Fold this sequence. Notes:
The protein is α/β, with parallel strands linked by helices and 417 residues long. The protein has two domains: 3-19 and 230-416, UDP-n-acetylglucosamine1-carboxyvinyl-transferase, Chain (Alpha-beta prism); 22-227, UDP-n-acetylglucosamine1-carboxyvinyl-transferase, Chain (Alpha-beta prism), CATH 3.65.10. It has 14 helices and 24 strands. The chain has helices at residues 22-31, 48-59, 85-88, 98-105, 124-132, 163-174, 189-200, 232-244, 260-269, 307-314, 335-340, 370-382, 393-396, 402-408; strands at 3-7, 13-17, 38-42, 63-67, 70-74, 82-83, 107-111, 136-140, 143-147, 155-157, 179-183, 204-206, 212-216, 225-227, 248-252, 272-275, 281-284, 294-295, 320-324, 344-348, 351-355, 364-366, 386-390, 412-416. The radius of gyration is 21 Å and the shape is elongated.
Amino acid sequence: MEKLLIKGGAPxxxxxxxxxxxxxxxxxxAAALLAGGASVxxxxxxxxxxxxxxxxxxxxxxxxxxxxxxxxINTAGIGNFAAPYELVKTMRASVLVLGPLVxxxxxxxxxLPGGCAIGAxxxxxxxxxxxKMGARIQLEEGYVIAEAGRLNGASLYFDIPTVTGTENLMMxxxxxxxxxxxxxxxxxxxxxxxxxxxxxxxARIEGAGGSLIEIEGVDELKPYSYDVIxxxxxxxxxxxxxxxxxxxxxxxxxxxxxxxxxxxxLRETGAEVARTPEGFLRVRGTGRPKAVNITTMPxxxxxxxxxxxxxxxxxxxxxxxxxNETVFENRxxxxxxxxxxxxxxxxxxxxxxxxxxxxxxxxxxxATDLRASxxxxxxxxxxEGQTVIHRLYHLDRGYERMEDKLRAVGADVVRIS
Length: 417
């Protein structure tokens, strides 16, 4: 099993190019199922999750090719409307095929996401919405079985904003008869990107990016040719990397307006964060960071996907910081691994109290999830000595060639067996 070997202490300096957004690419790949023929998506990152999604829709009979950040999805051969557990268990985003399959083909058999009963990180919001639109839903042996004639528009309210729920129902509503209103919808840039792609396919959508989205269904959609937005979480990770190493990075292919919450908090730590005239982002560390508090929130609040990385920064800050995780109840699995490197972190419920240390020490650590792995990389870059990060497959789910990009800006990092 591959590992990452990092020798810390070098400030990162130079330019890094952010890849296309993973969290935008996956729903866009699912959206291709809404139209007959070949859709083309450009700027797609070469990630494990993208390849898994390609296998998923390929298993349905779709053609899928992926090369040089360009994915082509041809739906002409689709004849299987099932998403099996063997593929879904590795990636929760697989549930995004549910809405398109029911809307266009009238049926779907989709495994419940691996290791996740309906409850925490629920998909029940997806199912309730589809039922209100006329679908018949059954749960059978760990699968969602959905059938429908043409779906009907409906007024739907999310008890809590859900990104995949908003995306799934927006895609289903695009082919429904009549008008669908999504209230308390997710406002993330990835939702807006999906809406823009659907509009390019002929959908009628208004309000994406706000909490109320209105979709007027159409009879059919055409394939898309579309460029995915940059990955704001990867950009934020490199921004924190600049701050934690006292480096100076120019981050290219970035949407600074998608990163306002992270940029504000980085400035509070003392880092310099500036937009360049070309629309890029420059981040420079200016000394040991100052401790600041954060509370994770749905967009436009501080993203839960950057909480772990920011905790690594706070572990070497001057003073005590408090991180309040309000989005996911089990997103502190990186804490024991950071503590192995010398971090002083105390947990109580959804609160983490971090007493900043003057420095961290290299150690053998284990990645437990995607963003936890990124936090360990950042901690290792700043630590004294050598760190070995195990279970590197977590990192590969969300970061394209991360070690190559880090080496190019001065990091001492290598992938080993």
